[in-house]
Specification:
12 strands; 2 domains; TIM Barrel
Length: 431
């Protein structure tokens, strides 16, 4: 045991507590025949919780953690503290980038040795903990070698380095029993068209993703391959802008049956969408996989990665998750970090506990809305005309036959209310 979280007791469900406890998250409470824990599948993000130093675009490090440093001893201490927090929170999963868990070496070979050693250490930690791996991924954006992208880089040596990195991370994810592997293109985009070959870079990105899928099958990894859409941070434009863009990309390279989406709330907002829009679209296209749960400060124009605290927003998101059939291999990863003034160990616990409660409260509202059925009944009523034989025949016919219905049936359509305010009032009854 370390001393970092000393005097903090494991959290439990206690709806009347005024201290560190769960007021809404009861992991054993049943919904639709499944435990709440199994519906929500919470995961802690290793990078924001244990690797982030507290900086922002205008200021540097504010956190002083005993595990900060580029040695294997520090990396092991970080892992010890991480699993202590997982146990205090009772979370079933965590997620990592390679750079979060191991120190950077002077060569790829040294970094690989560091990584493989710490993977063995983490695997040992998992044997005595309930917390397992939701997904692994590679950090191919922080180091200066990736300043022009990873798979899309104009330098083929960077492509090769990126391939070696992803292979290493996929092997480790497979070894640890991870449920998914995520490809997150932090710098797969451009800053100016003046030096960018769009066609070439798309082809490189597409081939790289094909290679990752091929390797998944080669090693027998049964988890899902996930792509995380991200619009324009830090690049001016990125090739994985939003769910619709990624779906077109997957279709172009024949990957729509192989790859699913890991959708982040903050990225959805930066792309000009709502979280529920991206979730609903992914589900309708058959590529919904997992989520990163966070929020942005709506007065800022960048990805602030704050813990969720808006129950109505969360409820609408989980409504779409439940409509999609819920998570299978995916889950709710808190891709969220403390504010840089929140310095104490207890802040890490409180940030996650509060977020888990907000998600639980929103989830309960979403489940109640779906079980109530009013929203879906009103949706079905709105489109009921398309269930008639005449409408079905029109879609199977041609333009002329559809047009002929107007005279033959004396059609004179009148507008009908979309009832938006009524629908919004129904939602508000639950949240």
């Amino acid at each position: 045991m370390t001393s970092f979280f000393q005097d903090i007791e494991p959290l439990h469900y206690d709806p009347n507590s005024t201290g560190l406890a769960y007021r809404h998250y009861n992991p054993d409470e049943m919904f639709m025949g499944k435990r709440m824990e199994d519906h929500l599948r919470f995961a802690v993000a290793y990078w924001h919780s244990f690797a982030w130093p507290g900086g922002d675009p205008f200021g540097g490090q504010t956190f002083d953690r005993p595990w900060f440093g580029d040695t294997m001893d520090k990396a092991r201490l970080k892992a010890d503290v991480a699993f202590e927090m997982f146990d205090l929170l009772g979370v079933p999963y965590f997620c990592w980038h390679d750079a979060d868990i191991r120190p950077e070496g002077d060569s790829f070979a040294e970094s690989r040795r560091n990584f493989e050693d710490i993977i063995d250490y983490l695997t040992g930690k998992m044997e005595s903990s309930k917390t397992k791996l939701l997904w692994g991924t590679a950090n191919m954006f922080s180091h200066r070698r990736f300043m022009s992208g990873a798979a899309t880089n104009p330098d083929p040596d960077v492509f090769a380095w990126s391939a070696a990195t992803v292979k290493l991370c996929m092997d480790a994810t497979h070894k640890m029993g991870g449920q998914n592997y995520v490809l997150w293109g932090g710098r797969e985009g451009y800053e100016t068209l003046l030096n960018t070959d769009l066609k070439r870079e798309r082809q490189q990105a597409g081939r790289f993703l094909q290679m990752a899928v091929e390797y998944k099958h080669k090693i027998g990894f049964e988890g899902a391959i996930l792509v995380e859409p991200k619009p324009q941070e830090p690049s001016k434009h990125q090739y994985d802008y939003d769910v619709a863009t990624v779906y077109g990309f997957l279709k172009e390279f024949g990957l729509e049956g192989e790859v699913q989406m890991n959708i982040e709330q903050g990225h959805a907002i930066l792309a000009g969408h709502s979280f529920e829009h991206e979730l609903a679209l992914a589900a309708s296209l058959g590529i919904f996989g997992s989520i990163d749960m966070n929020r942005n400060d709506y007065q800022s124009g960048w990805d602030t990665d704050q813990f969720p605290n808006n129950v109505p927003e969360v409820a609408l998101a989980y409504y779409e998750v439940l409509k999609a059939g819920g998570f299978t291999k995916g889950g709710t990863n808190f891709d969220a970090k403390l504010r840089r003034q929140s310095l104490d160990p207890v802040d890490l616990i409180a940030g996650h506990a509060g977020a888990m409660d907000v998600c639980a409260r929103g989830f309960k509202a979403a489940a109640a809305m779906l079980e109530d059925g009013t929203l879906e009944a009103m949706r079905a009523e709105r489109y009921a005309g398309w269930d008639t034989p005449a409408a079905a025949a029109m879609l199977d016919g041609d333009l002329a036959s559809a047009a002929a219905r107007v005279d033959a049936e004396a059609i004179d359509p009148q507008p009908r209310s979309g009832r938006q305010e009524i629908l919004e009032n129904i939602v508000n009854r639950f949240v």
